[in-house]
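Reviewers of the previous submission asked for a worked example of the structure-prediction workflow described in the proposal, so we include one complete record here. The input consisted solely of the amino acid sequence. No template or homolog information was supplied to the procedure at any stage.
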Amino acid sequence: MELPNKSSLKKSMTRWSFLQPNTNSGATPSNAKPFYKGQQVSVKFIGKKSVELTRAMKRRMQLLKEMQHENINRFIGACVDPPNCCIVRQYCARNLGELLHNKDIRLDNMFISSLVADLIKGMLYIHDSDIICHGNLKPSNCLVDARWVLQITDFGVNTLGEVEECCLESMEDEKYHNRLLYTAPELLRSACRNLNGTQKGDSYSFALILYEIHTRHGPWESTNLPKCELIKQLQHHKVGQAPLRPNTQGLSMDENVVRCMEDCWRENPEERLEFRSIKFRLKLFVQDQKPNIYDHIMGLMEKHAENLEILVAQRTIELEEEKKRSENLLMRMLPRSVAESLKIGSPVIPEQYESVTIYFSDIAGFTSLSALSTPLQVPA
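From that input alone, the workflow returned the following C-alpha cells.
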C-alpha cells in the first residue's frame, strides 16, 4: 500500500469535514467534530505554516499507517497543504490524564492493572517496530476508548515539525514546560539534538505515568516548585546529590511496583529497565487481576443492578410503612366513611341533618398541655 503523495492528498480534501484551525492554539476547536470517510477522527494541527513532504517523511508516515495494534491509536494520515497542516488519527473521547484527575471516576485495582498492562503492551509494540521509540510519552498521549482500552498516540510525528527545534533556555512559555514534565533528564539537556527520544527515555516517562496512575495526581505536585524551576533542576543535576524525583514515601501500592518505578526513573539511562523487564517485573501485579476489563465492567454493572434492586425493595417497604402511618392519622382525624372516600380518591358527599348537638368542652390547662405535646399527640 503506497502512501498518497502531496497532489493526491490535496484531492482527498473533498472527503474531509472539519473546522478551520484555531491559529492561536494550533489545536482543533473544542466544538469541532472532524470526520473522514464517514468516521469521526481526531485532528491535531501542526505548529507550522507549511510542511515539505520529503521521501523520508513519506516513508515514516507509511510506517505509521502500517502499525496495527489494539493498544496503538491508529494513524490515518496527514494533510500538508496550508492552512490545514494536520495529523489525523483514530478518535478517542478522553485521555488518561483527564481520567485520572476526574475524582468522580473510581478506579479499582482491576482498572489500574488493565491500564498499565495496555500501556506496556503498546510500548513494547512501538519499541519492536521501525519507529523504535515514542519520545513524547505522557498521560495526555495515552487515550482511553469506550471499552476502557488504553491506546498510545502522538508518536513518530516529530519529522512533521510538531516539535519546534529550539533550545530549552529560550523557552519560558508554560505550555512548553508542561510538555517537558515527563521528559527524561538527559533529553532535557539535549532538547535540541534528539527530538525523537530514546527507549530508555520512554522508560523514565512510563515510571512517572505509573506513579500518576496509582496516586491520581501529577508526579511533581509534592515539590511545590514552579514548572520552569522544576525543569531546570531536572536538567542540571549535580553529581553527588540525589536527583529530584516524585515522593514514594507512604504510597499505598505494591512494593514491587514502587521498586519498578524507581528502577525506571534512575538518573543513569543505562541503569533503567527496558519494557520487557518492566513487563516481567509487573507480571504478578497484572496477572492477579481478571484479564478482560470489559468483562470486569459488566460484572460491576451487574453488581450495581443487584444493589439497586435491593435499594428499591427497601425504599418500597419504607413507602408502605409511611403510607400506613398517614392512613392511621387520617382515620383518627376524620370519620371513617370520609377517610375511606379520601383514600380511594372519591368525592365526599355532604350530609344534612335536621338537628344536631354541639358539644363545648373546656379542658383545664389545655394551652400548657398542647405546648408540651407534638402535633400528633394533641388530637389523641
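Residues 1-28, 162-170 have pLDDT under 50 and may be disordered. We consider this example representative of the routine output the project will generate in years two and three.
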